[in-house]
Write a structure and sequence with these properties.
alpha+beta, 8-stranded mixed beta sheet, 2 domains, 20% helix, 2,3-Dihydroxybiphenyl 1,2-Dioxygenase, domain 1, 284 residues, single chain
Length: 284
């Protein structure tokens, strides 16, 4: 079964500042929430996927990773030591048990099951329970980026149409763009993680279609050529450099992009990572 993009974790030093940047770009951002262990987030909901803007809260009680145990909080804390940015790719799930079996069959790293719940606030101010099962794995050649699947157990309490209506007219997270010195090094891991056995390899890199959105892995030179941006260099291996969006009205998106210093590059609008806490935005 081919999975789809569920969400992207965007690690930031200041939740307030990072959320404000996405609001400046014309996105509606959900209210503040806090995980039981102390990381804090606000979300940007889209059509079937979302962005999780995440920071380490005061008095956070983060467990450390250990043999066979992956710590979401500690991973993002350590990620921030090298700077802000897109720290984790999350794919959708209908069963954590099935995901573990699939990862094992594909020879991917396995970690202990992890589940949690919290209270979400609706646009009307109502409090509702949400709960998630997370299944972590790891690319041995890209350990500075996190990977897991997420089974949303109460989607009816999570997704809200009002949160998905954005002033900039963006509707979908259409693609995610990694940068790697040798993109082909990572395509077997990504195939096993996504369930997509078909990948397109070219001189630019690797592409694979998921059930919701495209995954691209580009060489640094290809990334610069396609988007006019320098590739990230602070991290090794597979680096999640940019997010691609679809907008109903590109002119509306352009109004917001210009305010953040965005530029038109070919047929697309590009906002650099220095404006959005370490991740670039591409809109076509």
């Amino acid at each position: 079964m081919i999975k789809g993009i569920d969400h992207i974790v965007l690690a930031a030093n200041s939740l307030k500042d990072a959320a404000g940047q996405w609001e400046q770009l014309g996105f509606k951002v959900t209210p503040y929430a806090r995980h039981p262990w102390g990381t804090e987030n606000r979300l940007v909901q889209l059509n079937g996927s979302f962005l999780e803007i995440l920071a380490i809260g005061e008095d956070a009680e983060l467990t450390e990773s250990s043999e066979g145990v992956f710590s979401f909080g500690a991973f993002n804390r350590d990620f921030l030591l090298k700077g802000e940015g897109a720290s984790m790719l999350v794919l959708d799930s209908t069963s954590a048990k099935d995901d573990r079996a699939i990862f094992k069959a594909a020879g991917l790293a396995e970690f202990a099951p992890f589940s949690f719940e919290r209270i979400a606030v609706s646009p009307e101010g109502e409090e509702r329970q949400v709960a998630f099962d997370l299944t972590f794995t790891q690319d041995p050649l890209g350990v500075e980026t996190g990977f897991f699947t997420c089974h949303n157990k109460f989607p009816e309490n999570f997704w809200k149409a009002d949160y998905q209506s954005h002033p900039n007219s963006v509707t979908d997270l259409s693609e995610i763009i990694f940068v790697a010195d040798d993109p082909a090094d990572h395509h077997e891991f990504l195939k096993g993680f996504s369930g997509q056995r078909m990948a397109r390899l070219s001189s630019l890199g690797v592409e694979m279609e998921t059930s919701r959105g495209l995954i691209r892995v580009l060489s640094p030179s290809a990334y610069e050529s396609l988007y006019g941006l320098k590739a990230l260099s602070a991290r090794s291996g597979l680096r999640l450099a940019a997010l691609g969006f679809k907008a109903k009205d590109r002119n509306k998106f352009a109004e917001y992009a210009r305010k953040l210093g965005g530029t038109q590059y070919g047929a697309q609008w590009v906002v650099g990572p220095d404006k959005l806490a370490g991740v670039a935005v591409i809109c076509s």
